[in-house]
Amino acid sequence: MLPYSFQALQSDLQGFLYSIKRISATYHLAFRVQYVTGCRFNELRQISRFSIIDYANFSLQPQKGNNLRTLPISIIPPEFISMIQAQDTYFAGLTQSTASYYFRSFYFNKRIYHDNKQLTTNLFRHHFCKALYNSGYTVSQIAYNLGERDQKNAENYIFSDLVFTSRDDSL
Hints:
Layout: E1 2-3, H1 6-21, H2 25-37, H3 41-44, E2 50-52, E3 57-60, E4 69-72, H4 78-86, H5 96-106, E5 110-114, E6 117-119, H6 123-134, H7 139-146, H8 151-158, E7 163-166
Antiparallel strand pairs: 1-7, 2-3, 3-4, 5-6, 5-7
Helix pairs in contact: 1-2, 1-6, 2-6, 7-8
């Protein structure tokens, strides 16, 4: 297994988003929202978790009993804003298994691991935290942006040692 740098992660995720755009507009939008918000895939499937607060902010009630997240509306795609406003159930039919399939199929022949657990769409959450940290956010600010009650959970994402192996390599 080889270390997976933040720069490689960012480049690969952007390449993945470009690739998936040609395959599925629906999943592309879902993955873009994950990329810019760090939300979990299953949170997208419940549009009622999202609400527009005002012209500048939206909120997301995370899973697992975590705190309400408030994020700038400018980070999310306009078509997703429309979905929130209409409480559209467009993403309700998306499945984690199909999302994982797309991710595994189009993610540059790499298997990504954290603590010996293979990651698929949760990799967007790791990227979101690492990107905020690299931009100067503190751990407590990132925990707030994630809605995490326990700062250690945010630290786990920020400082996660990601590794990869070729799909052809066996573990």
